[in-house]
Amino acid sequence: MKRLMMATAATALLAGPALAQEEIKLGVIVGFTGPLESLAQQMAQGAETAMAEVTESGLLLGGSTVTSVRGDSTCIDAGAATAAAERLITSDGVKGIVGGDCSGVTGAILQNVAMPNGIVMISPSATSPALSTAEDNGLFFRTAPSDARQGVVMAEVLLEQGINEVAVTYTNNDYGKGLADAFQAAYEERGGKVTINAAHEDGKADYSAEVGALASAGGQRLVVAGYVDQGGSGIVRAALDSGAFDTFHFPDGMISQALEANFGSEIDGSTGQHPGTDSEGAAKYVEIIGDAAIATSPFSPEAYDAAALIMLAMQAAGSSDPAVYKDKVMDVANAPGEPILPGELAKALEILAAGGDVDYIGASAVELIGPGESAGNYRQVEVKDGVISTVQFR
Prior knowledge:
It is built from 15 helices and 16 strands.
């Protein structure tokens, strides 16, 4: 009898006039051009896979469809990112945004566009610790962990390998400085020594001067907190060509197939980490995408989860209005409720329509804490025979 009552309630919800079918547009704002363009397509594919899954189910808000509208954040140009977000909101009428990607442009979109227009943003990859305390009117969330956590993981990885002294270079923006500072604090607290912590600018043709300063300071390994499609790779090339360093440590912004293509076995023995998990949900995501390289690309699982959380929050609220569904994001992301993995969004929509609870686990083992950000799981990697391979998960 209870099951019948739930089914009847679900039918009533789906058929009710308040849930008339609509075309719901969601923005996907990532750097299709710029220093992270080698990761952007995989991130967009993740978000759009979740949208297609929900649309195919026919169960969201009375059979509403979900359409992706892309915007190019450029990763580094706050003006261009802001203009892209304004277009998506005012011209295209998006009801939520998956993005931005890089921390600086994400903060600019949040403050200049999302907050004034009351639009929910869930970033799959903006990791600056400063975003944890940014004013957001309850509109901003992220499925990627803060770099305060990544800094600790980096320190642990290096020290466990007997690397007690490193030089650090970082891209001169919110992401790079926030990560470099978090790493130095964690590393030195645990007994390591940072010989130099120096910024580099993206877009230069020659990084020999920067590498000269890093080499003079010394260190067993060079930590490159940069972008693989920009100055980070320029630093690595200059270091290899000059013989200043032959092994490196790479955080998330440096890890992609472009790193393998750029350097191959030249960087064998190098290490790194990026958000990732060996959970059941991660394995399911690989099955759904059908290509392990795409499914394990940094922030692709997090993008799937960001889109999924927006749509599940809409269902829980019974509305696509971000002013209404923003208050449901934390509810669907965390216990209590039925655990939901990738490929189970239809199941989640049915449960929510019937008035039940879900605990969205997703592709990245989602658990939102504090100001609506991921608690953080990481994939530790190394480069061997020119290939990035997984060592363990943390």
